[in-house]
Design goal:
Length: 129
């Protein structure tokens, strides 16, 4: 059974940093692409960033480029999202996701929710002004 478990969320102030972690189990993580999404209250879930299985390539949404950094540790089946210069508009539930099929991931694109089969339960990030 595949499990993706996020942690590291919390309440921070504008300008602060936070690092989210994603622990993966039940899948061959080193052969799985990974992504981070978020969903704010009343809004659709949005793509933030993605990383290839090897970690060689990363992709970012314009809204977080230069502030957020995705990384992974395949030896320990962990993914990370480093968030700097946080703003109140970054307040949302943050989700990590993974996809083991390269065909699926390439078919829909790294930014699409349909590209990811496995999802975590989410972790709340609240940024106060």
């Amino acid at each position: 059974q595949v499990q993706m478990v996020e942690s590291g969320g919390g309440l921070v102030h504008t300008g602060d940093s936070l690092r989210l972690s994603c622990a993966a189990s039940g899948l061959t993580f080193s052969k799985s692409a990974m992504g981070w999404f978020r969903q704010a209250p009343g809004k659709a879930r949005e793509f933030l960033t993605a990383i290839t299985s090897s970690g060689e390539s990363t992709f970012y949404a314009d809204s977080v480029k230069g502030r957020f950094t995705i990384s992974r540790d395949n030896a320990n089946n962990m993914g990370y999202l480093q968030m700097n210069s946080l703003r109140p508009e970054d307040t949302a539930v943050y989700y990590c996701a993974a996809e083991s099929s390269a065909l699926v991931w390439r078919a829909y694109g790294y930014h699409s929710q349909r590209s990811y089969t496995y999802w975590g339960q989410g972790t709340q990030v609240t940024v106060s002004s």
